[in-house]
Model the fold of this input.
Amino acid sequence: MPGRPSAGDRAEEMDAFADLIPAVASLLERPRNGRLPFCHAGTTVDEVYGMAAWLRANLPEGGDGAAVCLAAEDKAVIAAALLASLAGGPVLLLPYAFSGPALAGLQQATGARLAIGDVDRDFPVGMKVLRPQAGASAPLLSDFSADPRRELLRLYTGGSTGAPQLWPKSGINIFGEALFLARHFGVSDRDRIVATVSPYHVYGLLYSVALPLVSGASVLQATPSFPEEISQAAASCSATILVSVPAHYRALQGKPLKAPSLRLAFCSAGVLGTYAGEDFCRNNAVDLVEIYGSTETGGIALRNRFRGEEGFTPYPTVDWKIGGSQLLVRSPYLSAGLVRDGDGFFTAGDRVEACAPSGFRLKGRADSIAKVAGNRVDLEEISALIKRHPGVSDCLVLALAEGSSREQRIVALVEDAGVSIESLRKSLASCLEPYALPRTIRTVDRMPVKENGKYDRARILELFAQ
Done:
């Protein structure tokens, strides 16, 4: 990984993104390296562009309010659909699940009557399905025009509460960030990417679909999740880049990948534990870059603790400041519709503090402050104390309502069934006021997480309802 960019490098990168619109629009031109694989040992770049042109010719115009459900897991089909939408096609709707009820709910909420698919699914009655095939005859994609500022897709995500939430993303939001990542990390057609996160999460979409499109890198079609699967996948394609989430890095502790070709790893979708990160870097002799951001903001900052970086350094394409104790950001990657101040800054949901030389440290969520018996309790502080206890690899601290009253009780779920609850309680009692001590502490072998690597809060709440 390159070191922290100098002032000259930052100025150069900002100048490069002054031409972001034409750079994204130029993606409609078929690349010269079209015979290279887009998916490792599978669909080529030329075939992706052929499918994109076929889709664009068979999809309605994007300006008539139509939206199309993208219900495909094949990364080449997803890439083709993104290009077709960029070329003036309709907005793509990415569902949060492929079950019949989820697809029916999406249709009911959006009115979508058309879908792009790759396999048979339980589509709602009356929904027409287009299935692009490699080699289909179609005009060149460059025959169409692109407006990268236009809405490209809408991501349906589970959010922290488990309720589906909708976020719009433009061509600049998605492809602009991918272009930055390709340049900043030197990603090229010599790279082979393995991603353990679904392309229906914005992190997976950016790193396993958009990044290969703009860089020429190939990506493994499969999305492995268990340690043995991840190691085998990385070895099978001589991976150079791993894209994963904290839960998978924790699962990989003590299990080196069989991929000496690996040169870089990324982590996002949650906070990576210090030990899990150090263990991976030590066992695989590569940099592990943590990406801070969200679906609605896109990427904001990065850090590499293997190189001694405790704070996050914002992307050179992102403006930031601290208001009160909260982070404010302005960037090309913000979703449309976010409330911003007069200068275009959006207030993120995290508390931060500035740190040298030019970044910030995360201090917890702005909503992580709970009231217990009239006292303010910082849930992030309790979580940090628990994670420092020997044997704890991860934990989640919550404030739950007490019946119908406005009172709250603190609970904690700890990953590692071997931890002594009595020892943990004594340790916390020496650091916290009595009202801040978790009333209930439960242990699990592995934290419940969703496919996108986020905590499955619905399942976690069920554990405390028992």
Notes: The radius of gyration is 23 Å. DSSP finds 13 helices and 22 strands in the chain. The first strand starts at residue 67 and ends at 71. The first helix runs from residue 7 to 16.
